[in-house]
Amino acid sequence: MSNRIACLAAAFALSAYSEAHAQSDMGDVGDAAPVAEAEATPADEPVRDGATVYTPEDFARFNPRSAQDILSEIPGFSIQSADQGRGLGQASSNVLVNGERLTSKTESLGSQLQRIPVSQVVRIEVVDGATLEIPGLSGQVANIITRGGGRLTGQFEYSAQFRPKYADPKLYHGEVSISGESGPVQFTLALSNNGFRGGSGGPSYFFDAAGDPLETVLILRKRGSDNPKVAGSLGWDIAEGTKLNLSGSYTREYFTSTDDEFAEPEVGQDRTRFLGRDLEDYTYELGGDFQFPLGPGSLKLIGLRSENSGTFRSQALTTPLGGTDDPFGDAYRQDTVRRETIGRLEYDWKMLSGDWQIAGEAAFNSLEREAFLGTYDPADETFGEAPFADGSGGVTEDRYVASLSHSRSLAPNLSLQLVIGGEFSRLSQTGPGGLSREFWRPKGQASLAWKPMTGLDISLRVERSVGQLSFGDFLADVDLRDGQDKQGNASLVPPQVWETRLEVTKTLGVWGSTTLRAYYQDIEDRVETIVLPGNVEVRGNIEAASRLGFSSNSTVNLDPAGIKGAQLDIFAIYEDTDLPDPLTGERRAFSYQRDLGISVGYRHDIPGTDVAYGFGVDHNRLTPYFRLFEAGVARDGPTYLYVTAEHKDVFGMTASLTLYNAGNGRDYLERTVYDGPRDTAPVLFSEVRDLDIGPIFNFTLKGNF
């Protein structure tokens, strides 16, 4: 079906494009050839009314290398990446390039912005999204206006990380990219590796129901991953208002994780336990869009195809010490293939003193999984393997979305954006308990943007959205680390959310800027861990839940206070979530969610030098988690301190060195495990895990060529 739709879309595009240009050519018959004029570019267009404008010169003291570097220094602005759910949907990222959204799903927003050299950035306009012609945007949006450099340019960034304790060094993280143009054609090619190394170590203490010690386990954890990727994009300005964009990427992922444990029980034999996990997969993505004039407006056709295929393995082996008992353990493997095909069209036109858009999208997603379980055989020291039926099967989703959008000015300082639409989806599952279901869901939003005075922007948005389900929740899964497995649930339904969001941005003059947000979500069918009859734990739906949140993002320039070149960046967020516990019925917060976050950073670019330094603190608090047989709370950190130093001209490059976790943040866990359902069963044991992370040294070198 997806191939037929792609062919029809292509045929329609060619037909419509040919007809539009044929009509244009007929109108020129018998006329003298017009004098050639230079085609207008976004850089030549006037600045949008009400926009706050920044140029690269405003950030010269930071010596930015890319558009990403500039955006990270805009006062009170924080980058929001696009929703990475299935399909494309309307624009959701708060960053545009020349008024256009970035549609890649496997390329991070930061990576794409990093490939735009600062030499091509003309200006950045920060406006309220509701004043734009792009449906789905509200609040602060940064539109990066660029001009082609007319020559080949390159960028690179290399990053290394060293941890004196536990983790291996990270030596192969970075990216190199080139971009250029030839006439109407622009291109970008990038090679990168997103590497990660992590680790921790320390004791975990176990206690019985009375609080008496059971055993102490010494743990050493190591994590590592590499994600080499090649990515490219091509743009072709065919004619005025007609453009073709193509993009593609290919990524390999290699992930390994090991836990080495040594247990000293109060009674019985000492033992060792090894838990190893690894993942190897590949992902490719091909995408493109074609925009051209049609009738009174402009038609854009967007297509995307991606596939992810890989194998995940997990093994746990326990070896008793000082006796004759044999080692014992289990193994789990799953082979997974995910595919996505998307076709989307957007038609924009002006009518009745406003901007209109009609959009339609078809997205076809699938997951295929084969799972296997094994038991360790001490005779031949191997893990046997047998099919795991409950964890094997497939899930497909065919989803169709349509919307009509309208944007208009109600007054010189007041704009309105309305979106009405609907979604139809068909979910089908093969394997144990498989079934097929269909869902119809209305969706839409209304946004107001008000600028009551210079330096003050207020936006209000009310939205009804339809969430998406994780295909993995339809199938059973095995967790060998803590022995908490989950069954699959074929009866899951997509969640629906009513959200009201208020955003206020105030310029503080020479002191900087601040943005305040408040939001409330009324959630129907939220997905959480629930319990089915027979004490079966699955991911399921909660009938009603809510989220109330507040956040602020401020940049305070300290020049007026007499500290030239210094600034404070302050971010804070608080959330109050609420749902009925599926087991006890008591009201509680969502499991394992950040409910408090604070980040304060100080940076000082010393005037007259290429040297900068800074320090800061990050603090995050997580809510407790709840499962059928256990409950607990995890604290990663929760507070991290850092100090950093930077030199902006090391043989023409920028070098920085950062010490992270200077305050000895920990990997901490408290949990209580019950001898049955936690609402009725007695405590079986409790655990307090307190692992040291140690200091983390990061070195970064970046430049242009």
TrEMBL record:
GO terms for molecular function: siderophore uptake transmembrane transporter activity. InterPro entries: Beta-barrel_TonB_sf, Plug_dom, Plug_dom_sf, TonB-dep_rcpt-like. Residues 1-22 form the signal peptide. Residues 51-130 form the TonB-dependent receptor plug domain. It is a multi-pass membrane protein. Keywords: Cell outer membrane, Membrane, Signal, Transmembrane, Transmembrane beta strand, Transport. It is found in: Cell outer membrane. GO terms for cellular component: cell outer membrane. Transmembrane segments: none annotated. This is Vitamin B12 transporter BtuB. It comes from Paraurantiacibacter namhicola.
